[in-house]
Amino acid sequence: MSIEDKLYMQMALDLAARAMGRTSPNPMVGAVVVKDNRVVGQGYHARAGTPHAEIHALREAGELAGGATLYVTLEPCCHHGRTGPCTEAVIQARVSRVVVAMTDPNPLVAGQGIQKLKDAGIAVTSGVLESDACRLNEVFIKYITTRLPYVVLKTAMSMDGKIATVRGESQWITGTAARAYVHQLRDRYDAILVGAGTVLADDPALTTRLPEGGGKDPVRVVLDSQARTPLSARVINQHSEAPTIIVTVPGAPPEQVRALQEAGAQVLEVPGGKDGIDLAVLLQELGQREITSVLVEGGARVNGAFITGHLVDKVYWFIAPKIIGGTSAPGPVGGPGIVHLQDALSIQDINLTRCGEDICVEGYTVKL
Ligand code: AOF
Ligand code: ZN
């Protein structure tokens, strides 16, 4: 793998990431056309239903694409979806070499795009900066292969592992930089999920407020088995471009359900599980609505249910340099917990970042 290949692929990955939070349910993809060591075309996929990255880059290159190398972060598609197959455009443009970072996990493509290019006599190199490409599209990889949303759990605790005082005061444990970062996460993921307890206690708006403005609001999902969310709650009456979904169980008070619907919320009835709502079924339902990722902003009970159900893929765990104390002050993960240490959930591929005074531990759950 040459230095040039890595350099141009890095450029394509940076282009792809420009559309972070904007391409769902499609992947982020970037492409660069290089001829005689010069970039003659570049582009990225801006949102679902619009042209793919390769098309933008090839259009910009025009005639110069003939005999050039195309760098693309995802294997070119060969199917007719919302747009036509990119392999045909690549072949027509007479590109002589294609370098891809990762094969497309979409079962409709899955290696067939690369095969089509090879069949047309184009040299193909794949696997350049593959792990970076996979990480960039970790949400897409899970969603397109399982139709389930990628679950990200975010929490903020003190150094002694508390998310509130003994009286329940929780605003704010972390500082402004960490709280601003959370808005970037809301901008990035499709949905945000909390329990009705959090709505009743804190009345969060769950919208995205970026310092520069222009963020995307996530779909707001409230676990509320008995439809207790008050009509005065911000999740109901604070304007958002995205809907609010109140998740109940069968038998929730019908007049409350109707009132929430009349106030503009969607009510999704999901079977009851061991402890409230069956979260595995809920995730399937959200996946069917093309919600590819969910940011769980918990409450101890909700976090506990997701952790116990082994439903979390990634965590953002903020730690504030404060000590709260109090035996009865809650920690981030409620529920019955575990008895044996060997059953603890392990987190791997840790990345530590400073966020103002706070620390953010980002990592991935180890699957059983
Ligand atoms: C993208 N952007 O730059 C590339 C994609 O519905 P369609 O027609 O847009 O096709 C979406 C599929 O195309 C997607 O799941 C992936 O497999 C493939 N490649 N998609 O949205 C792109 N290159
Ligand atoms: Zn395509």
UniProtKB/TrEMBL annotation:
NCBIfam families: eubact_ribD, ribD_Cterm. Its cofactor is Zn(2+). The keyword Signal does not apply. It catalyses: 2,5-diamino-6-hydroxy-4-(5-phosphoribosylamino)-pyrimidine + H2O + H(+) = 5-amino-6-(5-phospho-D-ribosylamino)uracil + NH4(+); 5-amino-6-(5-phospho-D-ribitylamino)uracil + NADP(+) = 5-amino-6-(5-phospho-D-ribosylamino)uracil + NADPH + H(+). This is Riboflavin biosynthesis protein RibD. It comes from Sporotomaculum syntrophicum. NADP(+) binds at A156, W172, T198, D202, S225, G299, A300, R301, V302, N303, G304, A305. The keyword RNA-binding does not apply. The gene is ribD. The active site is at E54. Converts 2,5-diamino-6-(ribosylamino)-4(3h)-pyrimidinone 5'-phosphate into 5-amino-6-(ribosylamino)-2,4(1h,3h)-pyrimidinedione 5'-phosphate.
